[in-house]
Amino acid sequence: MLFLGILLHISLFHVSMSEVAPCNISKPIGANVLIPLPYKGLTADAHLKWMHGKERVFYSKGGEIKDEKRKIKFDGSLKLDNIKSSDSGTYEATVHDSKGAHVHFSSQRLCVLESVKTPEVKYSCAGQWPVLTCTRGGPEVNVIWYRNNQEIGQRQQTLTLTADLFKAGDRYSCTVKNQVSEKKSSEVKPVCSGKIQVNTPTVTFRCDKGTMQMTCVNSTGMVFSWNRNGQKLVGKDNTILNLPEAEFKSNHTYSCVIKNGTTVIQSKNVQPSCKVAEQSKWPNMDLWLMVTILAGGGLVVVLIILSIVCCLCKCKKSQEKEKELRLANLTHSPDNQSEETPLKRPRRERGPLPEVPKPRVRPAQLHNSGQPGPDMVKNSQYMHMV
């Protein structure tokens, strides 16, 4: 039993050394750590040994402490105070009973990490947009960007602002964190005063289920505001403007204003021709159109099925008639068939064909003796043969 326990211990040790195990416990430098002993049957006379890598940090045999570089609790858990980076690594616990039989082995990995430092956001105006940089607070940290205290889903250390992420007056900050700590930077308001080439925007529109949707189209710049009849619409500062039926008037004009740094450009006024109010008179038009299409399609399918059934019926009838004719021919006996249809003799058995008769001789051509001539005799013989 002891031999098997030693083999198990050696095999598990080699497995743990061949692959770097994930961190079971992660703590910052200077913290106090308690590495638990999963075995619950520890007795006072048991043998307990804790190993940190190849170094023995605690050993007791039969209740007598032999080595105590680290303290343990009553349940056998290992206590580590004011830990340092060098305390990182694998901790293994081995338990034998009072007779020396192996009863438990466990392995846990401790990761001692440095706490992150408070980051700082810096920006530059190289190019058309501000470029933000979050200074990392230490190695192996994750970066999260915020705009007006709202997370924007960016994770890289450098963030280049574009039209959908930047508006004058916006505040930006970043957070860095690792497994043991997290720190957030102060907010900054990027301001780029350089003049940037901005294209004049255009407004497109369409009707969508009782709502007028207008879009400010421009590859550069940002949507600063929307105007209706020359008056700014409060709270409408997105690229797309949606107006419900109650707010939309067909005789109103609309335009959008973009701003990039100190450059402000307004689009041309447009008057949407889509009449939302008239569309609302037939709220179920799409439904009726769909029902009509489905009904027509169903009718076509029924007609096709009926045509196929008729063709099959006709084919079946013709097959039945043909079958009846075949049965009728098979029921006639060979004798009856020979009587009804006499066999014709071959041409060779009938003999030679008779000679072609010559024209009859008129009475005036007869001999004066009153006897028939040779031609008449031949004709009479021919008639006799017939």
From TrEMBL:
Sequence ranges of Polar residues compositional bias: 330-340
Subcellular location(s) per record: Membrane
Signal peptide residues on this chain, from the entry's feature table: 1-18
Pfam name, any one: Ig_2
CDD domains in alphabetical order: Ig
Matching PROSITE patterns: IG_LIKE
Keyword Signal on entry: yes
Keyword Lipoprotein: no
Stated name of the protein: Ig-like domain-containing protein
Originating organism: Alosa alosa
Organism ancestry: Eukaryota, Metazoa, Chordata, Craniata, Vertebrata
